[in-house]
Design brief:
With 224 residues, the protein is mostly helical. 79% of the residues lie in helices and 0% in strands.
Length: 224
């Protein structure tokens, strides 16, 4: 095995990959939130439809989408591998119990929460992405109306809210861990990273949660 493979198959290498893909996914979520906020423009959904249409026909965006899906898959795989490695490294129950006392519940259950988020992503992509971007219906489908229609479902709206809430906690912990894995583990960086992670997590959580809530109760989307 080459030195390159040894590094990236090690626990440290996997953490680097998790950190880089995680930060890339957070950057995507910020951009995705910006696009979704166009739904609040009182223009019958035109701004959001034009934005979505441009995304479909932009070659650079389509390339980024491939990178994005690759990052998602790699992030999930590395998370699974790290979980397996950590369990093998802590076979003694005493060590596990001691860790439980020095870490938060969320940090110990990133795999569980990540699995819930993954399930939501599959449902979410099937609801919007597959028909609009893969099945080639972008020219004939009113994507703004489809978003509004999806949020009339109480089950989908509830799943969306729960998943986004969990995502917020996931981002809050993952953002800090990513920079620590990349070497920003000095004590002077800790308060900055903690505040930045919390701010980003709150911004994304409240931003994305607003859509199912406001659309379901008919507060938003009246012109669509």
């Amino acid at each position: 095995m080459s030195n390159f493979n040894k590094v990236f198959n090690s626990s440290l290498g996997r953490k680097y990959i998790m950190a880089l893909t995680g930060l890339f996914l957070i950057a995507f979520l910020v951009e995705h939130l910006y696009g979704n906020l166009l739904l609040y423009a009182n223009d019958g959904g035109k701004a959001f439809i034009d934005y979505s249409h441009d995304m479909v026909h932009n070659l650079l965006i389509r390339i980024v989408e491939i990178v994005l899906f690759a990052a998602m898959v790699i992030h999930v795989i590395q998370a699974l591998m790290l979980t397996i490695q950590n369990r093998k490294a802590r076979p003694v129950k005493y060590e596990v119990n001691r860790t439980d006392k020095t870490s938060s519940w969320y940090s110990r259950n990133m795999g569980l929460t990540g699995s819930i988020i993954l399930f939501f992503l599959v449902v979410h992509l099937n609801t919007f992405f597959v028909s609009y971007r893969i099945a080639g219906l972008a020219e004939n489908e009113n994507i703004a109306w489809k978003v509004k229609d999806a949020f009339t479902s109480p089950w989908y709206s509830l799943l969306y809210v729960v998943a986004v809430l969990i995502l917020g906690f996931h981002i809050n912990h993952g953002f800090q861990s990513a920079f620590q894995s990349l070497g920003f583990n000095d004590k002077k960086y800790a308060p900055i990273l903690k505040k930045s992670a919390t701010a980003i997590a709150i911004l994304l959580t409240l931003g994305f949660m607003s859509f199912p809530i406001l659309f379901y109760f008919g507060i938003a989307g009246k012109s669509i």
